[in-house]
Amino acid sequence: MKKVILAAALTALIGTSASAQQPNTLTAKEKKAGWKLLFDGKTTKGWHTFHKDAASPAWKVEDGALVLDQAAKKNGAPGGDLVTNDEFENYELSIQWKISEGGNSGIIFSVNESPEYKATYETGPEMQVLDDDKHPDGKIIKHNAGDLYDLVKSSQKAVKPVGEWNTAQIIKKNGHLTLKLNGVTTVETTMGTPEWDALIANSKFKTWKGFGKYQKGHIALQDHGDVVSYRDIKIRQL
């Protein structure tokens, strides 16, 4: 009897493991709902460094993740923010991130790549990616993980410890923004409204003419000088 119970338990465990969804894949249900992968888990196809034709070699694919290799930069590989080839306006984005100890990065959206702008953050708002405990920004209001950087503080802290994968979602529909971190809604606001203009007017971006002005744009992964990893990047149009 014990052998039968053990065999049943083992079969159940194997079945559970087999049914667990792997990163960088879509289920049949997700495909039917219109989800598409922005990262294939193997290459930087579909991405390029801001204002460049291809992705910088500092962005490597390791163990199914896009990893910003700071050591490669020290050896001469140019860095820079990685941006999608395509632009998006109304969508739901889901992405997993893992930050290094004391690290800083961000998911920047509605990025305009016109030559007049020299960086992604000149136009694109940012969902902060951070080690809140050991990076100096962790002590600054509206600069913590899950915040709409320098604009809106998270409703509650939802970040996981350094070394663990976090799942971030950015939902943007007709200007309305919802940010989620690990299933917790951290921020809700609407672009292009008087309230939005007030948020910008009270931020470090108040004199930046293009900041937060574009409803449609690229999605960017920020090179802030620290090691960071991204995977399971998927999007569906709304």
Automatic annotation (TrEMBL):
Give a yes or no for keyword Signal in this entry. Answer: yes
Q: Ranges for the 3-keto-alpha-glucoside-1,2-lyase/3-keto-2-hydroxy-glucal hydratase domain?
A: 34-236
List the keywords (alphabetical): Signal
* Signal sequence bounds: 1-20
Q: Which InterPro entries match?
A: AL/BT2_dom
What is a GO molecular function of this protein?
A: hydrolase activity
What is the protein name for this chain?
Answer: Uncharacterized protein DUF1080
Organism field: Chitinophaga dinghuensis
